[in-house]
Design brief:
By secondary structure, the protein is an alpha/beta fold. It has ten helices and 14 strands. Keywords: Signal.
């Protein structure tokens, strides 16, 4: 799912090219961590510093502000800084390839993965995780049509685009079956190899709507202002993003309590809003 979203950022109509493989200490800017003499909570591999593995190729969760290098921004990046600030320690973002995130955590190269990872059963067998955001499919359409799509049944009979072989395409296929079993018209699902092509299908009038993961959808809309709009609450958010730590690590309880505090004081909701995300998706336990 993360790699599919990365293709959004590389597409011509949407994109900021996101790449690179450097790491750097971040004492915090907006929503950032601040330097402190405090050692922080038990379990940090470097006392006084929260070290987080991150793959900055998934806007709006984590990406390079200038496109290719420099400051890493996004909900997750700012969330790392906010958690470090809450603990009174520095934030160190270690850029890691997506497939290297969990191995790096397990080898103690970083304290946490705060970077768009689903809390799956397989991951929870090898690592601890604290929920940070609700995730799942959502519907994007034109501003003129957005108010007319308020429920699943409103999609029956429409042409809906999705990336080929994606979980979003499967969701629409299943919904189309429900439409026909209820005596309504089937959904005309059109699948495209690239996510950017699903956007162009709606913009160019070849599709009435497209299905995409909610966090990627937010970025699509910001990159196509006036042409796209999210039709909210049509599909259920059925997955959860988590902040991962090593299994049984002394740091795990502090992550859970730290995220709870940032949720309670509105910090996480504020960061979400800054990046075009619905603040309500941070209300997760």
């Amino acid at each position: 799912m993360k790699k599919a979203a990365a293709s959004i950022c590389l597409a011509a109509a949407l994109a900021v090219t996101l790449a690179g493989c450097a790491s750097g200490s971040d004492a915090g800017t907006a929503s950032g961590g601040t330097k402190s003499s405090s050692a922080g909570p038990a379990g940090l591999i470097h006392p006084g510093k929260l070290t987080a593995c991150i793959d900055p190729e998934y806007a709006p969760l984590e990406y390079y502000k200038n496109g290719t290098d420099g400051d890493i921004v996004g909900f997750d990046a700012d969330g790392i800084r906010a958690l470090a600030k809450h603990w009174g320690v520095q934030a160190d973002l270690v850029v890691t390839s997506f497939d290297g995130l969990m191995p790096q955590l397990q080898s103690s190269a970083c304290d946490v993965i705060f970077g768009g990872l689903y809390m799956t059963d397989a991951r929870l067998q090898v690592a601890d995780a604290s929920a940070v955001m609700k995730a799942g499919p959502t519907i994007i359409t034109t501003p003129a049509r957005a108010g007319k799509i308020t429920s699943k049944t409103d999609l029956c009979g429409l042409t809906v685009a999705a990336q080929a072989a994606s979980s979003n395409a499967l969701t629409i296929k299943a919904l189309s079956d429900t439409c026909t079993s209820d005596g309504k018209k089937a959904i005309n699902l059109v699948e495209y190899p690239k996510t950017a092509e699903t956007v162009l299908a709606v913009v160019n009038g070849k599709a009435d709507a497209l299905a995409e993961t909610n966090v990627a959808a937010a970025y699509m809309v910001t990159q196509n202002k006036g042409q796209l709009k999210i039709a909210p609450n049509v599909l259920e958010l059925d997955t959860t993003f988590g902040v991962f730590s090593r299994k049984g690590d002394a740091l795990s309880p502090s992550i859970a309590s730290g995220l709870a505090a940032l949720r309670a004081d509105g910090t996480l909701a504020g960061i979400a809003k800054q990046y075009g995300l619905d603040p309500a998706i941070t209300e997760v336990k």
